[in-house]
Q: What sequence folds into this?
C-alpha cells in the first residue's frame, strides 16, 4: 500500500512539474507573432531561404513566434488576425488579388506592422496604397559593390547599435516614387560606389513610418546570402521587426 501511495505521489509530482514547465515555456515564448511571406512573381532572390532561416534564429533568441509561407491564400482576415507583423521577404511582382489586397490593408489599419526586406519595393507596382505603405518603388541597381552607408538616424531600434558610417556590400537599390513622409534611417553615399543612374545626394536605404494606422519598416539591404550571417544586419532587421510589432516610443 505504501509503495502504491509513493508511486501515485511520484506520478502526481511529475505531472505538476510538467505543467509548470509547459507554463514557463508559454510565458517565455511568443512576445509577438510574425508571418514571413516570400511569394515572387518576378525575379527570385537566392537569399530568400537564408532570410527566413535568420528570422527563425532571431525568434529563438528574442522569444517570438514565426510562420513561413508563400501561399497568398493565407492573406485573409481570419489568418492575419493571428499575427502582429507581416514580413515581406524579398517578394517581387504582383502577388495579391483584390481580396488579398483588401485583407492586407485591413491588417495594417488594425494597428499591425509590416517589415519589407530588399525587393519588397519591387512588388505590387500598380497598387498605389502598397507603394505608399512600403515607401518607394525599385528603379534600378548597379552590380554588387561595397560602399559607405550613412546612418543618419540612430533613434530607432533598427539603428541603435550602428556606427554613423557603415561599410557595407550589397546590391544597391535606387528608387522612384519615394514617399517623402517616411523617416529615413540610412542613406547611401553615392560618391563611394559606381551608382550609375542613382539618386544623387539623398539616397535612402532604410526607413520607417506610421501609415494608415499601422507601422512600417523597410530596409533595402539583404540581397546577398551572407547578409543574413552578419550580426549588425541581424540586429538592424530585428530592431525593425520589434518596432513594427510593438510600436514602443523610440525617442
A:
Amino acid at each position: 500500500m505504501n509503495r502504491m501511495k509513493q508511486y501515485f505521489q511520484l506520478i502526481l509530482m511529475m505531472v505538476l512539474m510538467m505543467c509548470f514547465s509547459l507554463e514557463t515555456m508559454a510565458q517565455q515564448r511568443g512576445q509577438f507573432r510574425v508571418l514571413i511571406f516570400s511569394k515572387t512573381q518576378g525575379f527570385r532572390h537566392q537569399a530568400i531561404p537564408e532570410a527566413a532561416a535568420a528570422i527563425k534564429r532571431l525568434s529563438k533568441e528574442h522569444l517570438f513566434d514565426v510562420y513561413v509561407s508563400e501561399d497568398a491564400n493565407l492573406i485573409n482576415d481570419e489568418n492575419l488576425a493571428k499575427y502582429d507583423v507581416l514580413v515581406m521577404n524579398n517578394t517581387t511582382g504582383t502577388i495579391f488579388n483584390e481580396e488579398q489586397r483588401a485583407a492586407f490593408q485591413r491588417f495594417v489599419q488594425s494597428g499591425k506592422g509590416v517589415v519589407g526586406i530588399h525587393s519588397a519595393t519591387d512588388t505590387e507596382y500598380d497598387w498605389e496604397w502598397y507603394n505608399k505603405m512600403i515607401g518607394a518603388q525599385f528603379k534600378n541597381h548597379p552590380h554588387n559593390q561595397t560602399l559607405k552607408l550613412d546612418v543618419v538616424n540612430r533613434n530607432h531600434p533598427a539603428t541603435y547599435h550602428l556606427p554613423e558610417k557603415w561599410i557595407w556590400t550589397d546590391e544597391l537599390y535606387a528608387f522612384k516614387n519615394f514617399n517623402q513622409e517616411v523617416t529615413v534611417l540610412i542613406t547611401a553615399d553615392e560618391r563611394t560606389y559606381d551608382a550609375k543612374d542613382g539618386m544623387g545626394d539623398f539616397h535612402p536605404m532604410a526607413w520607417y513610418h506610421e501609415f494608415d494606422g499601422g507601422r512600417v519598416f523597410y530596409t533595402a539591404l539583404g540581397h546577398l546570402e551572407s547578409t543574413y550571417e552578419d550580426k549588425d544586419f541581424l540586429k538592424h532587421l530585428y530592431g525593425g521587426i520589434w518596432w513594427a510589432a510593438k510600436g514602443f516610443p523610440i525617442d
